[in-house]
Amino acid sequence: MEQLEQIGIQTLVIPGNHDINNPYAYKITDEGITKAENITAEDFVSIYEEYGYGEAIERDKNSLSYAAEISEGLWVLMFDTCIYQNRFSEEGTLSYETKEWALEIAKKAKKQEKQLLCVSHHNMLQHNKYFDTYYTVSNSERFVGELVEQGVRLNLSGHMHIMNIVQSKVDKEESFYDVALESLAVWPNLYGQLDINKTKEMCYTTHQIEYPGNSYQYLYLSSWQKACEELSEYPVTEQEKNSMAAFLTRINEDYFSGRLKEKEFYTEQKAYTLWKEKAEDSFFAIYMEEILNTKCLDNTWLLLEN
């Protein structure tokens, strides 16, 4: 981040679910894997003082959420959706007080004719019913509607490590979009770029970086091994298991990259039929069906006209 700042790229940070008061924090040293010291919310703000918190135009008293002006006329709400104060959890949430604070910021932005977009670690909308409880901000539906009333239409999120875009129709005319960005360490190693012009039109695109590790092999082997482990509980031959596992890895590759093919491309393959006939009640069979029912096939770009 310091290197980005040195070349003129402003950086804004919010905590993720692994960052604060994490009882499962470990570090890798020459001696092996050992427990790591935790940091508090106060430590987090101190560490990232120069990467958002010191530039905030408003700070929430009940969380590490804040608002910043990243260019003239453009505000961003940085939401702290993590649970770490009285207990630690992977779930995402926003307290009533934080929502009220955020809505006041949104009202100010609308009154001052500022464009406002949101950023959160957890997803503001559900992307997949199997990525819900620990992924989607709890009880966010009404809050999203209230944001839209103030002219907010876009939230950038993460957490899933999958490039995916979902839309919520708040009414006949207005929609809210949650764009989940992929992890840079996960194949195909994409980052998102949001261009905003003077008419407040927003264009989101994705771009690939050159990653030094073999992230493709990791994703492929991880998908393959998990599929084989599950299929070992079902009456399939070794040849069928290999075919079904390979099929799952191909779907996962397309899903993680944000580029799905037409549903028929997958359902017409023999391996898909094997999943339906031999392991229809398995987690991965249901997981694949959820993916294949995705409405948006190309999740690598989005255009929001003003």
Automatic annotation (TrEMBL):
This protein's UniProt keywords: Hydrolase, Metal-binding
Residue stretches making up the Cyclic nucleotide phosphodiesterase C-terminal domain: 218-294
GO MF term set: hydrolase activity; metal ion binding
InterPro entries per record: CNP_C, CNP_phosphodiesterase-III, Metallo-depent_PP-like
Pfam family, one: CNP_C_terminal
Protein name per its UniProtKB record: Cyclic nucleotide phosphodiesterase C-terminal domain-containing protein
Natural source organism: Acetivibrio ethanolgignens
